[in-house]
Amino acid sequence: MSTAIVGIVSELRSIVATWRREGLRIAVVPTMGALHERHLSLVRAALGKVDRVIVTLFVDPKQFNNADDLAAYPRTEHDDAAKLASVGAHILYAPDAADIYPQGFATTVSVSGASEGFAARSAPATSMAWRRWSQASSAEWCRSGVFRREGLSATPYPAPACP
């Protein structure tokens, strides 16, 4: 089995809509790529609970305070897809930054409590970027129906509440 690489949200929506019509359960594993065994273990755990697994790959430019760090971050999309195929993931969703942050995007999220922990102190850009990505992707997943019925996430973070 190969893992399809999808980069366009309308294509992802179409696939997810088909799966939902078929009554399949779907999980999402968010990543920044450069996958390793821990990522793959999340995929395996998700596959033990659901019918289809989507792994997201998004290197958030807003997460990096230094442009050189962003440029140096490993981009291994095809290697990641091969690793995901080896464990049975169905889709690698790899959107462009312009799709996540369209022109005029100005939303930020401030969460007290857990987000004020180590990551927020040691890497404030990372912490803020994760909250932005989480909010943007959660809204997208709600619109696409990935979380709406299943309420399942393969990550240690709870699935968002969807209308």
Task: Please give a structural write-up.
By secondary structure, this protein is of the alpha/beta class. The chain has 7 helices and 4 strands. The chain has helices at residues 9-21, 37-47, 67-72, 77-87, 97-100, 118-122, 124-144; strands spanning 4-6, 26-31, 52-57, 91-93. It has a 4-stranded parallel sheet, sandwiched between helices. The longest helix has 21 residues, at 124-144. It is globular and about 40 Å long. The termini are far apart.
Key features?
163 residues; alpha/beta; four-stranded parallel β-sheet; 11% strand; globular
Structural class: alpha/beta
Amount of beta strand:
5-15%
Tally of helical segments: 7
Q: How does the overall form come out from the CA principal axes?
A: globular
